Amino acid sequence: MPKSLAIIRIFVFLVVQPIILYLMNSCFTSAGKLRTKICAYFKNLKKASPEINDTSTKTNASVKADSPATISGLMLHLGFNSRKEYDEYEKNGEFRDILKRARLRIEAEYEKKLHYQSSTGAIFALKNLGWNDREENESFNGAVTLSIEIVNSPHNPASAENEVAL
């Protein structure tokens, strides 16, 4: 790695990241204000819900469906400029636990959608949020070592199944 690139990385790590975190922390002056803003996001979803015609009944009644909660929508509502900025604040910010809980709330909404008939979109979203569709054993890396010992025997191997005597 060139020396100038290493210097730039150190500068970003020591100078730029702390400034971004300071600016983000100053945007959320208290945990209560951040919680209020997050609650407002979820309340606005219910207000902005489109009406859907319910064709399963003979009356064609309109049903109000909630707009889906999304991580991107939450980021925009809170004033973040990028997903990277949000992830950095969620990782190192002063009120990171509140953001983690908001993310968990959105994951819970996706998880509820798994019980619907068409849940492909929810499965895709949950996988992008780190979910897995099978349990993986961390200690097993897939490599198996077999030890085979060849032993000389006075008997010749059987060439057919009927030559084997038990």
Automatic annotation (TrEMBL):
Pfam family, one: GP3_package
Entry's transmembrane regions: 6-25
Source superkingdom: Bacteria
Keyword tags: Membrane, Transmembrane, Transmembrane helix
InterPro entries associated with the record: GP3_package
Protein name per the record: Uncharacterized protein
The species this protein was found in: Mucilaginibacter limnophilus
